[in-house]
């Protein structure tokens, strides 16, 4: 008998959920710094090229595979070809690794939203973060030293995530996306307006937007960084968008949705660039140092630079802090839901588990691993190394393999093209093929090659990842994800797929 697969309630609901996945921490803490370091205003050119030639074409591929084959990544790939299931499980493994550490960052941001009230981090935000708050050890392998506060916040993050996933695609994910994405826009919008009123904001914007055209010609890395940013930013390459699209109705538009999600995500990145650089301009003026020295990304930007800025704000410091860290929580959490949905849906689809059971057993298992590892004193180190390896190697390789297999090995692009075009107002054709099948894999392959070369030549003094023991950890993680995929696919090789579910 055929099971009825859940569907998104509305087209807007699906698009908001996909935007919720795409718009994440990376938009706020990664994009502004990356753009600045890679040509400033001139970065918009390679960035737009990367969006149009790689981001949106791959998004269209993933949406089409998900909708056509109506399954989470392993099932969808198996329906494409019996031997392709391994790709789906590999993507599941990558999602598990990301979910384990992503929850921690959301928990930190939650605490910092609270600390913003009265600037509880005091006058030395950097010392506060590493010594008081994280009580961090610089040794990756020194386990133990739990932070109760972190543990509690992470329990909240996981409980809320699993509760929403357990509630289902429509009632859980769609409903929360409809609330949180508009909320994020309002919160971040108010923050940007306040940032623009600060002294020095204009200098910040000038620094951000002034184009360095030479960079585009003289530094090929700028182009690669634009492509790298797009894959990460759109959450493509490891099953998220396939999973979300598997709940689409048969007749839903594919290409217009992909364009909408792609441009919405990029718009939010540029908005974040404006907000962050207005604030950095203010900080540069306050401290009398050039903006150059203020620019950072990631943990340093969010948890050191921003508290420093907030400490010196002329008015509304508490509100500014709550809005900034609240935005990180909301943006991060909607991405978190999309990551956790990948493994949970895979168990559901492939083993015929009910949604509640899959969420409780598999989601709960992930939560336990996350809670056991991340609130410890070496949590930040684990996070750093995992994030680096899984992004630079896991996602890039998985994306590359999935494209080459789908387009070249299985030669499915025509079938997917026809499937997408049948219900889309905006049609794809040979240009899509060239972008997806030629340009994107070439760029991914170059990025991968250069990453590996850099890593192998890195010495311990110049970079964290130069340590051989860290590389051992990172490679085991990236390799382990692949091994997990292979093992799952082998175990399930003889096990028939459930029948294609109807609407
Ligand atoms: N797309 C998210 C961002 O820009 C990042 C992300 C990566 C989200 C992996 C989910 C999974 O921040
Ligand atoms: Na993004």
Automatic annotation (TrEMBL):
Annotated membrane topology: Multi-pass membrane protein
CDD domains: SLC6sbd_u1 (cd10334)
Keyword Secreted: no
Localization of this protein: Membrane
Segments crossing the lipid bilayer: 9-29, 41-65, 86-114, 146-167, 179-202, 222-247, 259-285, 322-346, 358-377, 389-411, 431-452, 472-492
InterPro entries (UniProt xref): Na/ntran_symport, SNS_sf
A Pfam cross-reference name: SNF
Keywords for this protein: Membrane, Transmembrane, Transmembrane helix, Transport
One GO cellular component, as annotated: membrane
NCBIfam families: Na_transp (NF037979)
PANTHER family according to UniProt: TRANSPORTER
UniProt-recorded name of the protein: Transporter
Organism: Glycomyces algeriensis
